[in-house]
Specification:
About 75% of the residues lie in helices and about 0% in strands. By secondary structure, it is an all-alpha fold. It is elongated. It has one domain: Ferritin, core subunit, four-helix bundle (Ferritin, Up-down Bundle). Bound molecules: MU-OXO-diiron. MU-OXO-diiron (FEO) binds next to helix 1, helix 2 and helix 3.
């Protein structure tokens, strides 16, 4: 599947996702919203796990791994809806890239990659759902006041 470094790009994309969410978390920490920051830090750790899943798969199938450079993420956001708009937008891009990888693997009759990628296909459904849920919730409440604080506390309960 990886004739043009597409799996290394997938590793890089997952690591960039971690970097992006960590940057968002740092922004939320600076705004005294530790619940949002916590949710985003858990998300960043999950993305590291995604990168490692692809890395270990490449090791298992004996592909050479040459890691790509990771871009600098944005540091400033228009809190809070902006963060989750960007999160949803980013996850949609990742979904497209995963789907492209699935297509490449199918063209190459690469069954191990197809099976591995199925996990990511399912994960992306969850990722988009979670980001859309928070974004929609934010749209229905005012961006200041008790409702925002309640959402912050809910996000702060995420395990991970
Ligand atoms: Fe690894 Fe958020 O997708």
């Amino acid at each position: 599947m990886d004739s043009e470094g597409s799996t290394e790009r997938a590793i890089k994309n997952e690591l960039y996702s971690a970097y992006l969410y960590l940057s968002m978390a740092a922004y939320c920490e600076g705004k005294n919203l530790p619940g949002f920051a916590h949710w985003l830090k858990v998300q960043a750790k999950e993305e590291l796990g995604h990168a490692m899943k692809i890395f270990e798969f490449m090791v298992d199938v004996g592909e050479q791994i040459i890691l790509k450079a990771i871009d600098q993420p944005p540091a400033n956001f228009s809190f809070p809806a902006d963060i989750f708009e960007k999160t949803l937008e980013h996850e949609k891009k990742i979904t497209t890239m995963i789907n492209n990888l699935v297509n490449l693997a199918r063209q190459a009759n690469d069954n191990p990659s197809i099976v591995m990628l199925q996990w990511f296909v399912n994960e992306q459904v969850e990722e988009e759902k979670n980001a859309a849920y928070i974004l929609e919730t934010l749209k229905t409440i005012k961006e200041t006041g008790p409702a925002l604080i309640m959402l912050d506390r809910e996000l702060g309960k995420r395990e991970g």
